[in-house]
Amino acid sequence: MEYLDRRRDRIERRLEAVLAETEPDELTEEMRHVTLSGGKRVRPTVTVLVCDALDGDTAEALDYAVGIELVHNASLVIDDIIDESELRRGTPAAWTAFGYGPAITASDGLIGEAFALFSENERAMQAVAESMVELGEGEAMELVSEPVTEQEYMELARRKTGALFRAAAELGAIAADADPFTVEAFGQYAERVGVAFQMRDDVLDATADAEQLGKPTGTDAEMERPSLVEVTDLTPEEATQRAREQSSKALDSLEAADVADSEAKQFLREFAEFVVEREK
């Protein structure tokens, strides 16, 4: 775990440094509250691991990793407003702590800082822009065109969660100056991991303890939100098995990338399995 901890520490330090350079102080405080109040740093870790697996430029990957984490956190601010969720990671959500206007401003600020980190690389900009289009479409689908079948749910999960995971991996490959086939293979890997991650989130919302999870549970059923458990007749165990199937497909995509075995690649394998078995 020392290998992984070192990379996460570097992500955290760079994240703090980027936020420290923002202004005015009120906006910095709000963005720090959103971003530094916890979080698994899953997406940025994927970015760095993919770059490592391809022997790429870790410094460039680190900026991309921080950027994708900022985009992710910006989206969570809006999610909490839509869902009226008062807690995020066991602390007050941005809108609860600061009000709706400042929370939305913080979300905008995070996106702006993120794109400043991507701005010097056209491929990076395109990857992130495409993922944000998918994310926006996913949010809209959830609000106005809710899925009623498992197939429709899968499309929602791909857009709402899988898209940012895909971008995270693609950014790592881009930082390593990988060819388009390799970028696509890692993108497919991460997208499928993201879908599995969302499926497991849905199961945890239905079954986990709110204190352990760090956010309210049961909100999918309460708000009639289209989770896998709510849309289908699957039991939580059956839904978890569907997530395992996505994890298996992710591993197939990882092998298709045809890169040498390494510590980074092994962690990517383990991550695809972990997202299905996690308890929070």
From TrEMBL:
Name of protein: Polyprenyl synthetase family protein
Similarity annotation: Belongs to the FPP/GGPP synthase family.
Cofactor dependence: Mg(2+)
This protein's UniProt keywords: Isoprene biosynthesis, Magnesium, Metal-binding, Transferase
Key word Secreted present: no
One GO molecular-function entry: metal ion binding
The keyword NADP appears for this protein: no
Pfam family, one: polyprenyl_synt
Example GO biological process: isoprenoid biosynthetic process
Alphabetized InterPro entries for the sequence: Isoprenoid_synthase_dom_sf, Polyprenyl_synt, Polyprenyl_synt_CS
